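#onboarding

Welcome to the new folks! Below is a worked example of what a typical request in this channel looks like: someone posts a single protein sequence, and someone else replies with the predicted structure as tokens. Don't worry about understanding the tokens yet, we'll cover that in week two.

Example request:
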Amino acid sequence: MYSLNDFDFEFDPELIATKPLEDRNQAKLLHYDSSIYDYKVGDLDKILKDTLIIVNNTKVLNARLYLTSPKIKSGEAFLLEQQQSKCEWKALARPLKRINIGDRFELDKNIELEFTRKADGYAFVRFLCSEEKMWQYIEAKGNIPIPPYLKRLANSQDKHDYQSMFAKKRGSVAAQTASFHFTDSLKEKLKSNRCEFAPITLHIGGGTFLPVKTNRLEDHEMHSEKYMIPKETYEKILAYQKNGKQIVSVGTTVFRAVESFWNSHSTNTLRTQSLDTELSTDWFLYPQKAELYSSQVFSHIMTNFHQPKSTLLMLICALIGKEQAFKIYNHALDHHYRLFSYGDTSLLKLNTLLF
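Example response:
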């Protein structure tokens, strides 16, 4: 069995991409299909033909709010999850110990943020305004939550860059970064190759920032995330499966949502009953033995290069094998691929039940 340290690797910090390339088609694309090939993202149409490309249409919230008061000169509330009472949120807050229940922070004219309770290291906050005004404030004044490893504040360009072209349904506190590589021109080139795009929704939660702290992987408690599979997308998947055509998961979030759906709904009847319905998954896929995980849906996954010891890296190792995954990462590091959210990407052929 693997332990946490088995998923560590060293890299040059200079390879961390702090912003996307101006021409996203020029980002590097590592293609793995038994062997490793180096392409540019703009060459994706040379690889994919007659393919269903499934994307995540979640939209990243401007979830980071900066707070000041006579008592707190520099504070922050990071909105994580909207509660049943629509103006209340579960949040991370700093400095949490100095903030008391009932403390209020003026955000804007006629808009205050009140701390209502604390639990398990989280704060619960309420906007003292209408839900409409709350969303207007978040959209206009909130800050996009770029990853902490970038070690800088988000700027106005990040509000554009840290959002994919497919983003429609607000609800995430981190981006589905593989989809950053798609542009209108690339999408049209792929469509001319008889490729289709179909959306699912998985809202990425705050747990994506949390490191794995348990040495035994099976002891790690995976965060739960909400997702939905549209009927139209499901029907396209079945049609492509029937005809033996390729299906690509753009990112790990798409893979988790769709494979979770198939795993938890064992028959077509059960799956049909749960379409267009908000569901949740806390599925944690990691390599356990020598066997690879066989996808029930996908022939490929498109994914960026992930941080050491992350659940995302473990998922990739479960799909193609840890040894092969680390060969791919070593190749990427040797060839100066840019890393993480704003970095380069890969297209990996999967072990599958279907192809």
